[in-house]
Design a protein that fits this description.
The chain has one helix and 27 strands. It has about 325 residues and is mainly beta. It has three domains: about 90 residues, Immunoglobulins (Immunoglobulin-like, Sandwich), CATH 2.60.40.10; about 80 residues, Immunoglobulin-like; about 90 residues, Immunoglobulins (Immunoglobulin-like, Sandwich), CATH 2.60.40. The protein is rod-shaped.
Length: about 325
């Protein structure tokens, strides 16, 4: 009995063939790298052999020309009277396992075994949905994949300061911070094909903070400006107060411009009553914060010096002149 293995992938036959003259029990391993490929296990009957059979484990697939299997994908090749090859169309993972070609000769049955290994590319079939959580919450991200061999799962936080995580289906983040917000990438890999990659977006809510508040001095009749920079998720809503009084856009020369991370208060045609402390308030559903800053009166370009200061500066200048006069040439 001769036994030949051949694998075909999407209609393209492998150029490698291996031939055996039977000399006792042996096992041939065939690897099919993609499901839905076709696989042919060839078995040739020698002269004197009366009957052949194909078995999968202990189940008979064919006995002679009689088909015992109900699987429509399975057939016997009959290229010639000695050809007794088993063909499986659209190979599936359930086809993985040992197959035995048994031939009844005049004296004793002879067998040859082949092991079909079906490799399946990785496929992520379940991954955590995009989520929005509050800062400080414990988070578990899940990524489940199939494949053969079983794929390894790795996680990556897509950020400039990303750190590698341990491999595994579950990624635990304890007390998540705002810096850990963003996209998390799950990759399933088993070297059969390209890795399968999917992403999860994590939004981290946190209470607002005021990062900076700035103002300048302004002369009466001019326009004054105070800028308030803040951060928060969801983006904070800004309000302005002068003392205990809430300010509104368009009120007494007040212009308020609010953006997602800043608010600008402009006072047009400043009068004496506009000077004083202004408070910026930033609020979202997680909290409220505020910061205050005065709008100062601009008094001119030069600071008025006292009589004592003027006399002291004049004395210093006189000393410098005397020293320069006495210096040797």
């Amino acid at each position: 009995m001769h036994f030949i293995s051949r694998k075909s992938r999407e209609g393209i036959h492998s150029s490698s063939r291996e031939f055996w003259n039977w000399s006792g029990p042996s096992v041939l391993r065939i690897t099919v790298e993609n499901i839905r490929d076709n696989s042919t296990r060839r078995c040739y009957l020698e002269d004197g052999a009366s009957k052949g059979a194909w078995l999968n484990r202990s189940s008979i697939i064919f006995a002679g020309g009689d088909k015992w299997s109900v699987d429509p994908r399975v057939s016997i090749s009959t290229l010639n009277k000695r050809d007794y090859s088993l063909q499986i169309q659209n190979v599936d993972v359930t086809d993985d396992g040992p197959y035995t070609c048994s031939v009844q000769t005049q004296h004793t049955p002879r067998t040859m075994q082949v092991h079909l290994t079906v490799q399946v590319p990785p496929k992520i079939y379940d991954i955590s949905s995009d989520m929005t959580i509050n800062e400080g919450t414990n988070v578990t991200l899940t990524c489940l994949a199939t494949g053969k061999p079983e794929p390894s799962i790795s996680w990556r936080h897509i950020s400039p300061s990303a750190k590698p995580f341990e491999n595994g289906q579950y990624l635990d983040i304890y007390g998540i911070t705002r810096d850990q917000a963003g996209e998390y990438e799950c990759s399933a890999e088993n070297d059969v094909s390209f890795p399968d990659v999917k992403k999860v977006k994590v939004v981290v809510n946190f209470a607002p903070t005021i990062q900076e508040i700035k103002s300048g001095t302004v002369a009466p009749g001019r326009s004054g400006l105070i800028r308030c920079e803040g951060a928060g998720v969801p983006p904070p809503a800004f309000e302005w107060y002068k003392g205990e009084k809430k300010l509104f856009n368009g009120q007494q020369g007040i212009i308020i411009q609010n953006f997602s991370t800043r608010s600008i208060l402009t006072v047009t045609n400043v009068t004496q009553e506009h000077f004083g402390n202004y408070t910026c308030v930033a609020a979202n559903k997680l909290g409220t914060t505020n910061a205050s800053l005065p709008l100062n009166h601009y008094t001119g370009c030069c600071k008025k010096l006292s009589k004592d200061t003027l006399e002291q500066n004049l004395s210093s200048l006189t000393t410098v002149i005397k020293l320069n006069t006495l210096a040797p040439e």
